[in-house]
Amino acid sequence: MTLCNICRELCPNFENGSGDWESVEEGFLIIDPVPMHQSWESFSKSLNYNCAICWGLWRSIRSSPRASPNEEADVDFKSWLHEGAFSAETLTFTLHINLTGKDNRRESNEFRVRYTTSESLKEARHSYGIDVDQTSGSVARFIQNWSNHCTKTQPGCIKRDVSLTGTGDIDLPSRLLDLGGTDSKKFRIVQSQKCCQKNDQYVTLTHRWSHDTPKLLQTNCEQYYTFQSDNILPQDYRDIISICREMSVQFLWIDSLCILQDSPEDLLREIKTMLNVYQNALLTLSICWDYADSTLFPSRRGETLSIALPNDENESLAYSTTGCAFVNHVDEFKINVTHSLVNSRGWVLQERTLSRRIVYLGNEQLYWECDGVIASETVSNILQDKDVRRMPIFHDSDDFRIALWPKLVEKYSQCGLTSESDRLAAISGISRMMSAANPRDHYIAGIWSQYWIFDLLWTPLVKNFWPRNGALLRTCAVRTIQPAQGAPSWSWMAFPGPVEPPRSLERPKCIAETTMSPDKSLFLPRALAMLSQFDVNPPPGADNFDSMSHTTLRLNCFLIPADFAGIAEICQNESAPAFYHPISCNAFYFPQQRINAIYHLEFLKSSSRALPGSEKLTPITLCFNKPWNSGLPTSMIPIFHLPKHPDKRWTRDRVGGLIVQRTSARGQDLEFTRIGTFQEGTTKESVLLGALRTTICKGVIELDGESTNSGKTGKERNFETGLYEYINAPKIERLMENTSQDLGERLSPLFYPRAEWANILLG
Known about the structure:
This protein has 763 residues and is an alpha+beta fold. The chain has 24 helices and 30 strands. A hairpin with a 2-residue loop joins strand 1 (22-24) and strand 2. It is globular and about 85 Å long. It comes from Clonostachys solani.
């Protein structure tokens, strides 16, 4: 690999001077930004020179591997060395390079560079075979090598294989493509029960659909049930079939051809089997980019590809004058796979998560991913952070899986779907697997009954609504269409965009049984509300994993009245970003012309009458997911208290919960809709907890014998007794004594030291 003059100057031979580099004990550092290419013309010249660093930068900003620099020129392009380090021990440069461009694009890339001789570099490229283009045969050999490594040396993969295939039989999909023998040029669709053996292996395909994706329909299924020429399929499908034949795998599962796309009954039946379809497959092939009309094997410039640095450290810096170097692009997997088009599709998150092993196609290099390793043709173990790797839901630790769900939700909510009606179904395989691991935990429209407190406190991931540029804009589809049909207001699926979990809580510590504990020494979240019942009424043939219709939660909770009056007078400034608007008064603003706009008030001011800039900050955070309706009664529902730890000064006393509006009364039931969340966090004692104590002292929660005749269950009575004891603890009494004189000053006019204890429906 050669370097252009600009990149070569960034990596000097220190025998002839260090330039911008500062000498340190371990080697050299550079901490002040150094300009590199300051124009697209300069950058393009280096691409023509096949500079490996510049080609890595180009791959990070192009729209796909099929794009060319001439087609996607950026007149605002600039590149900078943000910081760098040179290790005298390993003779390796580590470079962090930032890019800026049109639409305020900002990209950051990390490279590791080590000089070598042209002979050593040529020998390494030849051993990897990257100087020639990919073929179906070379892909099959790559798969075979890594399959052997995976099944023989990776403990997690071995254990998973044994658990799935230990009996010798696996559940095959209902239909499969029969590819014939290795020399066949024809295929057909078969019903596996009639034409396959229990131990037959098959490969699955994950891809993005296009307008010309072939589909199995009730009108053409008989045709597909007889052998057809491969030539009736698009080129990318033909390439996948040729890879399978090179692997001597006879059967292939493709969603568009193995499910009747015009039969709702067949779709519903097959969607329920997705867990088995992907986890039982020998391998999943993933097409990273759209290649329907062209081959999956793009031409490549081998001298520009990222390559592993050699293990031996005896190379000399004297060779730096030649400009030949091993260049490892640390971010290549994130750019070429994680941010590829296929991984912006909602269904693919599940397919990637459930698959035992995956090979990613469509880039200049092949990439392998299994439970134990990520690799390419030239790097045997690509080190990636946890946000880049797939979600390891088959982990042995229960706490690990429990903590994984909100991360899956956050990632999944950023993905796009052709039809929002698939929002629940496209993640149903994962939810079914997690339910099987813990049958006591009930799945309800995207949340789990044992962790309902944590799961209800999702908030809009506001920053992801802003227009995004570069790789993220290309590959991370943000939902801006209507929410999933039938989604209840409290479910994250009801919000038409990305969401994030509460950052102040740890999900494994929010289990319902723990939050009911009266032990105050635990310093764990304590429930201030009770999920007494949940109703899930799926239509015939469906279940709670693929239907959200008529789903409600019944809560026993405090209702604290709230009022957001004066909105129109408080906010007239439209210059702030559309989804973030800090307001200097206790109000919230939603412009009528943009009903989906989310304005996040980070700190609620203590008085709406105070002069701007002179107010005291009340540590209450509000975040809305729906516009406030001034015509409906509004309430705050506290659902947890997290006590401040006495030995950890940085911790806060936190009370958090939901903002709701009453929409109707169903008989004697009050029905509410979720419109947001709130959280009070203070280094002192919670003011809201004091307000709840005032409410209890007024006898809102009855603890005498009459309550046994109120129709409450034993569980409800026990919870209310525990709540009474918790809030009336000496700790809270001291709070009331210390704040009795200035309680009115500390409370915002938004809150009142009174509340109602109610049994409500949240729909």
